[in-house]
Amino acid sequence: MAADWTEFAVSGVSETTPQNIMLGAGTLYKNFTYEKAQNKWKGTILGATSGGNKLTIKPETTDIPVDGVTVKAKGLVQKIGETAQIETNMVEITKEFLQSTVIGQTGTSEDARFDVIESKALIEDSDYIENFAFVGFKTNGSPIIIVFDYAICTDGLESDNKDKEASVIPATFQCVADLVAGGSTNKLPYHIYVPNASATQATQGTQKAVKA
Fold first, then answer.
1. Alpha-carbon radius of gyration of the chain
2. Any alpha helices (H) in the chain, and if so which ranges?
3. How far does CA 24 lie from the centroid of its chain?
4. Are 171 and 85 in contact (CB under 8 A)?
5. How far apart are CA 1 and CA 137, in angstroms?
6. Domain edges within the chain
7. Residue 49, C-beta contacts closer than 8 angstroms, at least 6 positions apart
8. How far, in Å, CA of 192 to CA of 198, rounded?
9. Gap between the Cα atoms of 44 and 92, Å rounded
10. Pairwise CA distance, residues 3 & 22, whole Å
11. Per residue in 2-60, pLDDT tens?
């Protein structure tokens, strides 16, 4: 008699797979907060991108050395830090974006037709972007939201300009903790919002009703 292997799935695909795929580059916001009274999220769009956005949240771990333990062991792998960042490719170039990349300040322009950005020696509280957010969408139309309470650009300004091509400026915004009394200094203030099943079902029901 031939062996029965039917308990093994040939792939991870299920009936919900098509609704749970992230699609598109997403959108970046600053000052992105939830307005409870209006039941809406609000913020300022950072600008248009070209080449997508990349989110990286990475815990830093260490293996505690114990004599006789020669492999990674549960309980001996300890978290000692973490990093969270969003890498973007900005095609819409504004004064605010440029100033954030160089951590600069507004200067005084001799020509009234221009604003001017200049260097400064110290980083100020206002240089940290509050509620910096990425909003991406799944194929079912529901958003996934990542919010950094505070973020700052860490890799400066680099612009590669070519004929017949739009200039795209890469920038990396890192999540940072706030050093306040009673605040946490051993974890980063990031938040990942994933739509729950009831909200997703309600949205899909509304979409079906509109189509009907």
1. 23
2. 95-102, 197-211
3. 14
4. no
5. 49
6. 19-211
7. 25, 28, 88, 89, 90, 91, 92
8. 18
9. 14
10. 38
11. 899 999 999 999 999 999 999 999 999 999 999 999 999 999 999 999 999 999 999 99
